[in-house]
Structure to design on (208 residues):
């Protein structure tokens, strides 16, 4: 399995519109993004099939991981590396049954360490906590304390992903606590230089 570490770029219908999504994602990959997630809560799978296939090929060309948010059948159809599931999405056991043992399945655990422990016990490949900071794309998101990262690292053997209001300025606060990945939307795609912004995030994960 490819290593789950570093900048985790998440697409957004408004910030990465489909007419320029490949260009924007490639800029992030060139800057050092290691994981890319296609996230769209509204379009039909059939509408996303071609773009998902293109994103998968683009990511693999950079040695990066391609994940699809929730859409398990689309992930299977396109050969994506896996899926990310939240509380209102497909259940983990069903996703694993459909995608098989080799797929990467990440689980949102919000601010609940017990949920992360349970997800890891079931076989999740990574767990995600957040929001750690005020999120422009999810202002109503539950907040998670920084301490949950080190608490999770102390009891889990799976990588920890952080999400929510993460910027290149505050990401070091997460890395020092043990974060393996930083999932980013606004600070990355709103940057006038996506590649340079991705490089800033990637640098935060380099060994000191």
């Amino acid at each position: 399995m490819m290593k789950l570490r570093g900048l985790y770029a998440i697409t957004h219908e408004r910030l990465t519109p489909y007419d320029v999504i490949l260009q924007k994602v490639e800029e992030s990959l060139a800057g050092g993004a290691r994981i890319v997630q296609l996230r769209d809560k509204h379009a039909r799978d059939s509408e996303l099939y071609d773009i998902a296939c293109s994103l998968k090929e683009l990511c693999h060309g950079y040695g990066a991981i391609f994940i699809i948010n929730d859409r398990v059948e689309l992930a299977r159809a396109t050969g994506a590396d896996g899926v990310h599931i939240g509380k209102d999405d497909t259940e983990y056991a069903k996703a694993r049954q459909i995608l098989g043992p080799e797929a990467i399945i990440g689980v949102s655990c919000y601010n609940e360490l017990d949920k992360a422990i349970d997800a890891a016990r079931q076989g999740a490949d990574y767990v995600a906590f957040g929001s750690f900071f005020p999120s422009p794309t999810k202002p109503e998101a539950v907040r998670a304390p920084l301490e949950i990262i080190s608490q999770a690292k102390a009891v889990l053997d799976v990588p920890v992903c952080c999400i929510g209001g993460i910027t290149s300025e505050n990401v070091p606060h997460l890395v020092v606590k043990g974060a393996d990945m930083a999932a980013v939307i606004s600070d990355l795609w709103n940057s006038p230089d996506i590649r340079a912004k991705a490089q800033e995030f990637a640098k935060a994960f380099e060994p000191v």
Summary: The chain has one domain: 6-204.
